[in-house]
Design brief:
This protein is an all-alpha fold. The chain has helices at about 5-10, 10-20, 30-55, 60-75, 85-105, 115-145, 150-155, 160-185, 195-200, 205-235. The mean pLDDT is about 85.
Length: about 250
């Protein structure tokens, strides 16, 4: 695809802008900013990745993965600002998920230890983990606030913080995992996933593309479960003080 051909795809940006202007949605500025940022960021990343892939340096691979984790942590922690120490909790969760998935992939020889595979798969894993963290924190903080009276009642009757927050925690974990599970139920029937479609467009054998897509789907399922559960159990204790009282948000 040439840059001229790529510029023609801005037609797909012009249509939402026109609809937003016509219907007075007020989304024109955000749409333009989002489009400009996506162009600059993706082109910059494209040139950086070309350099990293050509060098095959472990240091550059490590720096790229670290940058992904830092950016994802910064974005996700905003939804859990009321939770003490949420930055390191999100960071630890993302690092654990990354180490876990790459250990399995590289340890069992599922994917080769090259920059092309490590960085590409890490980007999908960390990105999905970030989205799951945001979903969980958004739901969990809402659940805690909504059921504050119930939580305090259980504590006043002698319940532990874990017992008092159990239902809210489980509901939040379940709610954040549901989108990933539901999307996998209809994959191949309702939608062709991005990685599979990209490989097919690039000329790969469809069966080979399916195999790689299944790998990513199974990875994302683990990512969803581990991120939600780990972040949940790291977060809930800091909602209470040493006297087992619920801290006011």
């Amino acid at each position: 695809m040439s840059y001229w051909t790529l510029s023609l795809t801005l037609i797909f940006v012009a249509l939402p802008l026109l609809l937003s202007k016509t219907l007075h949605l007020g989304l024109e500025r955000d749409t333009v900013i989002a489009t400009a940022r996506s162009i600059v960021q993706l082109l910059a990343v494209g040139y950086i990745l070309k350099f990293v892939f050509d060098s095959e340096s472990l240091l550059y691979i490590f720096l790229m993965v670290t940058l992904m984790i830092v950016a994802a942590t910064h974005n996700a922690q905003k939804k859990g600002a009321a939770i003490k120490g949420i930055i390191w909790k999100v960071a630890v969760t993302l690092v654990f998920v990354e180490v876990l998935t790459q250990s399995v992939l590289l340890g069992f020889g599922i994917t080769p230890p090259t920059a092309q595979y490590i960085i590409s798969i890490s980007g999908m894993v960390i990105g999905n983990s970030m989205v799951l963290a945001i979903l969980f924190l958004n739901r969990f903080t809402a659940e805690v606030e909504t059921h504050q009276d119930k939580t305090e009642l259980i504590l006043s009757l002698g319940g532990t913080p874990k017992q008092a927050i159990h239902n809210q925690l489980m509901h939040s974990i379940k709610a954040s995992m549901i989108p990933t599970i539901e999307s996998q139920k209809t994959v191949g029937l309702v939608q062709l996933p991005g990685m599979m479609s990209g490989q097919i467009i690039a000329g790969a054998d469809p069966i080979q593309a399916v195999q790689f897509q299944l790998l990513i789907m199974f990875l994302l399922l683990t990512t969803a479960a581990v991120t939600s559960v780990m972040l949940g159990f790291l977060s809930y204790p800091t909602l209470f003080n040493q006297r087992m009282q619920l801290l006011k948000s």
